[in-house]
Amino acid sequence: MNEVAELMKLTVYTRIPNQDYTGSLANSVHMACADDPNEFQPLNRNYGLLFAVATVDENNVIHEKGLKNPYLFRTQDGAFGMIAVRIDASGEDDGESRGQILLWTSPDLVTFDAQRLVRLDNERYVKEAVCALDSTGGYEIRWQDNDGSYYVNRLADLRKPEGISPPEPAEAYTVERPAQPLPGTCPGNVLTVDGPAGRKVQAAWTPVHNTGIRVEEQVSVHSAGELTKVRATALYSDGSTADKRVAWDTAGIDFTLPGTHTIHGKVVTFDLPFPLASGYADPVILPWNGRYYFLATNDNVNNIGIYVRVADTLQDLFAPGFQEAVILDLNEELNFIQTFWAPEFHVIGGELYILFAVGGKVWGPQCHLMKLNPGGDIMKAGDWSTPVRVKRMDGTPLAADGITLDMTYFKADGTSCVVWSYRKGIGTPLDTGSMLYIATVDEANPAVLTSEPVLLSRPLLGWENVQGTINNEGPYPLLTEDTVYIAYSGGAATGYTYAVGWLSIPRGGDVLDAGAWSKAGTPALSYYSLDGVYGPGHNSFFQDTDGTTLVLYHGEEQLVKHGTRCSAIHRVHYNSNGVPLLDVAGERDVHPDYADCTIQVTVLA
Length: 605
Fold this sequence. Notes:
By secondary structure, the chain is mostly beta strands.
């Protein structure tokens, strides 16, 4: 008897905007899956997966776009395609998109090729469209205009949309939709896929979580110190693992006497509570000479001054009675008056620097840096050099107009780089939005660029351009063996929609080639990622004394438009493909049901 092949259902949809999930987020492609066609479960926590890309006019001003009526289909090579109708920021017909639809292709609905525009007509607005293979192996795109009339266009190759045929009148079509649409959604179509393909999609867009803890059954040691080095292995839903310290209960063991004992232990979790430091944004931690140093934008003093904390442990950085010093204060002579923003520690050419932005009497923060004097004490203002403004190759300011801020540094494959945010026309109709630029520097003099700035990213996606903000800012590098990642933030810097996205390039790539970088379409960390943390963003990375990579960022405790920014911290998890994840925290990191361990210990003579 032949077994019935496992099948799954996938559906796409947009959401109806509500008080907190604004149109910028809601008017994007969402996806859900189901074993039972009537029980769809949202993927990616019901947050958008694909966002329409904004346009940029002749004045360099961004015009936000959304989308409606997404439709999912199979391609002739067994992969997937997605089409949708582009709309303007208010959800209405978009004049720039008259007669056109958006098109994506994807091998697996996990990664997507760059979106294209396909022109179906020159005059009519497209209300919705569907796409299917025709008898020749090409595609029929059937669509309805705003007057209720139906048309069909034919396209042989999705990669060559310019080859599409003119529209012809057509009969009405039908669309399979969920029998029970998810609440608060505008449903698209349903597509049946085989089980393996569906499970891959489901796994890729479901949060990775802890599924168990594995420890050795028996170990032999000479001392308690050796036992503390025995780790547990945490298992995760995607097949990845992570080493964990264990607090072993050795109260019944005399390590001076040989013998065998069964003991219990508890997996040590990285459980520093949120919030850590209230009113501290854009946080950075530096492990330096056996101690930890903490830097941040200090909202508690109206962002005036650079404050540093020091402690022997991470916990003590945020404990009552912490040690803190002002190492750069308001200085009218130097015209350091306001917006002491986003200070970052960086070791460049063996020297310790702080990169930061500061403004004068006239508002307008600009990128500066200062260096710790040889043998200097980080906590002493007098041990730091006088800050200098970062300049271009020809000695002119980094920007002749506008603001520059959030500069960071990394060195990969012998090349030293700085990345920063630039914005022009803020508060005017010609606001460019904040943009990320990259350039190379010489380690011996990082205050002067050694290349022309290259535009890396602009806030063209709905999650980056939300709540009245247009942000790409707060870049920070994370280097792995095969990839250079830059985490950056978009959305409202002082609101709940702030979120962290990824830019990446393979190691050895040309970092000054903007086309060599990839940009993730959906955030790695948002207010949908972790319970009780709103507006997570402007992050940094560091390693603790165990070599664990940690992510540090600011978030808010309430879902409000403008809240108190507070520091937060948790572990970075690497998935089964070695890609860093920023949302594996709390019970998803170590579930309480798996935290208790047992092991047999043999004490050797």
